[in-house]
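Here comes just one.
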Amino acid sequence: MNTIYLDHAASTPVHPEVMETMLRVMKEHYGNASSVHAFGRAAKRLVNESREQVALLAGCRTDELVFTGGGTESDNLALFGAAKANQHRGRHIITTQVEHHAVLHTCRQLEKEGFELTYLPVDKYGIVHPEQVEEAIRPDTILVSVMYANNEVGTIQPIREIAEVTAARRILFHVDAVQAFGKLPIDTSKLAVDLMSFSAHKINGPQGVGALYIRQGTPLDPLFFGGLQERKRRAGTENIAGMAGFAAAASLASKQLPVLGEQDELMRLTLLQALQLHVGAENYHLNGHPEAGYRLPHIVNISFPACDTETMLMNLDLEGIAAASGSACSSGTLEPSHVLAAMNLPQIFLRSAIRFSFGLGNTREELEKTAEKIGTILNRLRNRR
């Protein structure tokens, strides 16, 4: 069976050039970057070169970038590190109801440790507005964390405007940019953002490696201890092959960025037009922001009210099509998306939402076939009733 992978928001296939880079590194560079001999020095040079490439895409200085074990660790380091380092100033933190669980679960843990959290609501498109942030700020607020673009519906937040609010009040601002990195132009040197999280496996790099941008002078306590790596901010022997793969993926993303958005918009349009043809516009609902510029084009969240999420995903899987619910899995049961719930969508949309996300390797023909299969599935279900 020819399979169709439409879950790039979860993880992307590794680009062939990235794979070649990583294989070469694993064959030729097996020294520890902390060692002083020639093998160690060669490994250290590779770490530094990799940092330069990723920093270039992030628009930051190399000494402001810390490699991590992925986006989740990056979020954890930012939130725990900033909270602990600044708790003498206050213990109030602001975030939103639509963050990734890497942020939300960290915030819940911080609450258990005595910090106070405010979870801001969003509008029907999933946007939190700067004035909401400003209204939520208290004298003891030390940190604000808002994602750049949502992993379920693709909605882009007004990061620049929120950053102006936090900078004016001298409050640290963390941005989870895991979904936006490599998809949107990001220049941390021009944003009043103090911390920003990235991940390699969202941009056709390897799993298990990410990075955290830490603006120079930002106080941050480390999570790990036992070594002096990453300027004492992240102890542990460096994942050299992973870092090199991240760098290669970042370099490719930088070159593709000018045309990638246009390609993704065309793919998105192809899917929606095919759904109108095979399903009918009245039989599905598009979740998230409808306007380009306010959303990531490669993430399309759609509800099919005639079919619940689990049934649709199972039937698509039987057809060789991989999509996602964007929901948390608890005890083997799909729970309605916390993102869509925060957007106050009707229950019928909450319980029938599917996330399609595309990228490297996908074709317009695959998206047309996907829409056709969805139409077939819905017709089959109607005939059974």
In short: The chain is about 40% helix and 15% strand. The first strand starts at residue 4 and ends at 5.
